[in-house]
Write a structure and sequence with these properties.
A hairpin with a 4-residue loop joins strand 10 and strand 11. This protein has an 18-stranded mixed β-sheet that branches. It starts with 14 loop residues before the first helix and ends with a helix. It is α+β, with helices and mostly antiparallel strands and 371 residues long.
Length: 371
């Protein structure tokens, strides 16, 4: 919900937002209950305003954790020190209630955070950066040898040769392992979007965050994190291969989207975008025919092989194919898909064949139990 004005903003927050707001300050606690964390995560995935507030709490906690408190300035002179120690001319200080310290602590926290931001501005030219570690060999960051631990700033390329590796902390939401012979650039890092560009090579990403916060662009598709772990490879021609080990990843390009769950894979090609996902343990004949269908104009022969080889888990592939094959062939895909897993109530043959988005979403929801 957009803010119509600061004065009345709190009146327009939903009851769920107000409940979640009370939990946000405790997000960084190690013993934050798992059930509450799951509830907060679902809400933050849908509410931009609460997600921004949560990000602010996390950044403040990190700043306070890393900051070193300054030493207090003491009065000079032996006589003053002696009087202080002796308590001369001083009244016993009145003990303040603990709640009265909150404004002072908040002010101190803001000063620390402001100081850290100023220091970052002066030392990095106001460009945000991620922490990067040298794992093996001599990776290069911004064309310079990477120290054991360094900073990777927006706009810089991180490169590894045949024997070097690196590990990157993706803000506060995950990490990326950069394999040998890889070239990758940091594109953006902010509260609502963290993005890299993989020109070639291999990376392995593990992200724990609300969906659609972490993106990796390649020459043939963009990997959109939906809360997952995955391996992404790009060859010198720009073709890619995604393998998901946990959660989900969406591969997008030019309005085309492939949803890839754990245990599945999906190839990409420049000028075509993502192909049709399939599971790693799908029949080899199905995988070969699918590659022909997606990238080699395999036509009716390749489609017939896919339909003949498909089993219940392969409804992942068939559901995607409904919208990708020509209309005359769509009926055959529907019939095979319905034979493996009948459509749920609310989904009709005619609606599916005309690609009714609501019906396709309903069917996908019922199919996901088999994926």
């Amino acid at each position: 919900m957009r803010r119509s004005g600061r004065k009345d903003a709190s009146r327009h927050r939903s009851a769920e937002c107000r409940q979640i707001a009370h939990l946000l300050p405790a997000l960084t606690d190690a013993d934050f209950p798992a059930a509450e964390a799951e509830r907060v995560g679902r809400h933050l995935a849908a509410c931009t305003r609460c997600r921004d507030e949560a990000d602010a709490y996390v950044k403040l906690a990190e700043a306070l954790k890393e900051a070193v408190p300054p030493k207090p300035a003491l009065p000079e002179g032996a006589e003053i020190v002696a009087r202080i120690r002796a308590g001369e001319g001083r009244r016993a200080p009145r003990r303040l209630p603990h709640w009265s310290l909150f404004p002072a602590l908040a002010a101190a926290a803001l000063l620390v955070l402001g100081g850290l931001r100023l220091q970052s501005h002066l030392t990095t030219g106001s460009r945000p950066a991620w922490r990067v570690e040298r794992v093996a060999g001599t990776p290069r960051c911004d064309a310079k040898p990477l120290p054991p631990v360094g900073r990777w700033r927006v706009g810089e390329w991180l490169e590894t040769d045949a024997v070097s590796k690196a590990k990157v902390a993706v803000a506060n939401i995950g990490q990326v392992h950069v394999a040998p012979n890889t070239r990758v650039r940091l594109v953006a890092t902010r509260a609502d979007r963290h993005q890299m560009e993989l020109a070639r090579g291999t990376l392995e990403a593990t992200v724990s965050a609300p969906p659609r916060l972490f993106f990796v662009a390649t020459p043939s598709a963009t990997a959109v994190d939906l809360g997952c772990a995955y391996r992404l490879e790009v060859d010198d021609a720009g073709s890619g291969l995604l393998r998901v080990t946990s959660g989900w990843v969406a591969l997008t390009w030019g309005g085309r989207e492939s949803l890839v769950p754990a245990g599945a894979r999906c190839e990409t090609r420049p000028g075509v975008g993502p192909g049709t996902p399939c599971f790693e343990d799908a029949a080899p004949a199905l995988r070969r025919a699918l590659a022909q269908l997606d990238f080699e104009n395999g036509g009716a022969t390749a489609l017939a092989t896919v339909l003949a080889e498909a089993d219940t888990p392969d409804t992942l592939t068939l559901w995607h194919l409904l919208a990708r094959v020509a209309e005359p062939e769509r009926a055959a895909v529907y019939d095979r898909l319905a034979a493996l897993v009948p459509p749920p109530p609310g989904v009709t043959r005619d609606g599916a064949l005309r690609l009714d988005s609501r019906m396709l979403s309903l069917w996908r929801a019922s199919l996901q139990d088999f994926w």
